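Sequence only, no structure available. Ideas?
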Amino acid sequence: MTDTEALVRRYYDAFNEGDTETMLACLSDDVRHDVNQGETRTGKAAFADFCAHMARCYRETLTDMVFLFEPSGTRAAVEFVVNGTYLATDPGLPEANGQTYILPAGAFLSIAGGRITRVTTYYNLPEWERQVIG
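Reply:
I predicted one. Tokens follow.
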């Protein structure tokens, strides 16, 4: 396993364990975080704030993960299924009452200096809304 593979797998293992500190340790100080519906965030502090918000509103586990690594070790892609519970209403989204959802998603990552420098995540927000509205 390459250093990039180990880094990316450690990041996603930490996600599934709810271990934000380990996730942050995998990131560069100036990490760029592109979320599906929203503005780009830059830096570990912004990423930590995002993680705290997500932990308050959602409980998610990723399954069926497929990792793809570019040979130079500077890029990775991950396809997965998000298995989640909507815990608290996220502003601008439907009301939360413990709804569950299963949603395919994917992410693209850039790696430099032994750290993840970019995380870009994509999923189908209208499908998520359909599932939580019922």
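The mean pLDDT is 96.
Hope that gets you unstuck.
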